[in-house]
Amino acid sequence: MNILLDFLPLQLNGGIGGAASFTMRVCEEVFSKKTTSDTLYGVWDSTIGEGALYKIGRIAKNHHINLHDLSKETLEAIVSKNKIDTFFIAIGQFYTNYRLEGITCKTIMFIHDISEIERCDIKADVMLYDRRIESKWEHIKRLINLFSGRWKRQADAIYSHIMPLYAAPNTIPYTVSTYSKYALEYYFPQLQGKVRVCYSPTKSPQILPTIENRTLNTLISQNKKFFLMLAANRRYKNAKNVLNVIYKILDKYTDFYIITLKYGVTEHERHIDIPLLSDSDLEQTYRYAYALIFASFFEGFGYPPIEAMKYGTPTIASNVTSIPEIYGNSGICFSPFYPADLYRAILAVINNRNKYCTELTHQYELLLQRQAKDLNLLVKEIYKS
Q1: What are the 10-residue block averages of pLDDT along the chain, 385 residues in total?
Q2: Do residues 159 and 100 touch, judged by C-beta distance below 8 A?
Q3: Nearest Cα to 217, choosing from 283, 281, 270?
Q4: Are 317 and 305 in contact (CB under 8 A)?
Q5: How many CB atoms lie within 10 A of CB 383?
Q6: What is the edge-to-edge ordering of all strands in the sheet holding 225-229?
């Protein structure tokens, strides 16, 4: 078989985050099932450059992948010239700037979430002004974009471009949670009953014996208790509310710290912001955290609670979109719209952490089984003629 793989998520947004991790894990499984009668191709864009975590040139060399540059060739030409049997698209929205006409081969295409549409519908930006990292004028501009309909027009443009391929007869449309499936069917009725769900597969990073980040190493070696928040620079991760609440907690409980990734600003002596962690150090952070705070307004799937769950680390999680589906009854949930509810949830974990730790194992095992089953079925579909 001739299989075309999507490497754009390894480049875009710096090649960091759930999109890149999902793409790489699926590709690794495709590599492991390759036979001598299979030929693998990959698409990337040389004008974007390499991502921070996965080097496409090295991947292509190690797995004998024929790379095609989307800045120089159209997808239609790549598919036709190489007689592609199956085209795997890991993140459909990443193809907004590329021509999608003329792709007649079997296509497996993922849309993980439709937050671009949902944010316009629920108008979450109204309450997301964060004075620490955003000027009032920047916030006003966001509100203008929201209420003028500019963001909605942009979202409409994205989906009017990718939806014809996602809903095409030759495409098998996928998403990563039941919530996202229903959201897609709600906003795009033509997809009713067509979208398949494949939980994002588990990651297996190599864990080094030492912690590379000095600040993190000091904190852990001194057995300090810390809460963890990831991707704090992304507005919809809700760092504003988290930090407003956590600073009250730190003032009340003087033996706790908060670690954020990528926020860029600190206003409390026990707030530690780290720009970037290696996969190994991130795993150690999950392992030693007192709890993960996962306060997102939107998630298509959400890796962090599962990664924390692996180490018996409880998650204080939003009760919206896909998060309750993934986390089940194994943790404590709160409304991301109400800071006082987050305050309640954090205190509940502080007062009875062991209760939440003991409930994690069963849900984690269920998720692992589901992830392995879904990944196996997906790769079988990729190789299916």
Answers
A1: 96 80 94 95 92 85 95 96 97 96 96 95 91 93 96 97 97 97 97 96 84 95 97 93 97 97 95 92 96 94 90 94 86 93 97 84 90 97 94
A2: no
A3: 281
A4: yes
A5: 16
A6: 271-274, 256-261, 225-229, 291-294, 315-318, 332-334
